[in-house]
Description:
The structure holds 3 protein chains of 3 kinds. Chain A is α/β, with parallel strands linked by helices. Chain A is built from 3 helices and 3 strands, in the order E-H-E-H-E-H.
Amino acid sequence: xxxxxxxxxxxxxGARSGDLTRLAGAGVRVLADSFSLKERGIxxxxxxxxxxxxxxxxxxxxxxxxxxxxxx
Amino acid sequence: xxxxxxxxxxxxxxxxxxxxxxxWIHGAMKGxxxxxxxxxxxxxxxxxxxxQDAGGLAFGDWRQTQPPRIASDLAxxxxxxxxxxYVAEDVAxxxxxRNELINSAQPVARGAVAELLGRYDRVSYW
Amino acid sequence: xxxKKTITIAIMDAPYENARSTTTLRLIDLAAKRGYNINxxxxxxxxxxxxxxxxxxxxxxxxxxxxxENHFIPKDAIAALMREAERNGGKIDWVNCGLCVDERxxxxxxxxxxxxxxxxxxxxxxxxxxxxVIATR
Lengths: 72, 126, 137
């Protein structure tokens, strides 16, 4: 799951991020767009447990590899 | 006529407009003499976070030289006499620390919003 | 080029209305830098993204002239992305949905944009390594 734009707003610790942490615990890679984080003043080094910052390249990589990429 | 504007929608097209257009229009209206106040709620409370940084975007050889600086814009509005408030619980629920916010905005408890609305002649919800 | 891909992206948002437009351009920029062939099918309001008549303006609230404001203009970003793709051995094929163009009066698009139909989207998708739809809400 790649969070982008306002989708990154729940990734601060304590920001109702429990669901994201549980998702990561279930084996889902939970990623947050680095630019969206910076744009919103969210420190990449202080994200909810299980969430990692990542560049938008991840989406393009998934497309290039033939993955089923869905914009929700 | 004292008007309170409630702003909830955030980051809708702020990169393209190089502003938040609602914050911007309030700057324009204040400049024209309007008596306005702003209440930020929901995701828009993030606009008060000082360390927002939308700089560095480029598309091919086009570089954005004037990214939005929304926290500064709100501080500038406050400096011009526009009351800037925010719903305190919306900040806390987003894991934002009070000391991350600009100094010139005032918290309002969610339960006190109705009373706040009652202090104005008009309320606009953007 | 072994790693060269062809990607199709369908978009629907008019410019200046939603952050999806910026994210779309960021994706296209990344693909252009990789030298990919990028098909864009612009549907509904998105046909206005490459509208040739867009002009920048000053920003009196911030005290900036037209030049100082350097306002983001979608058609210029798209043209820059077309150049970027070519520089890296790729190409952007931007198709505006014709009926959407007609009802919006958006006939005047920048060079490199062509008029098409849903059949073009289907054909582009069939011929691509992958397709991403970024729909409006």
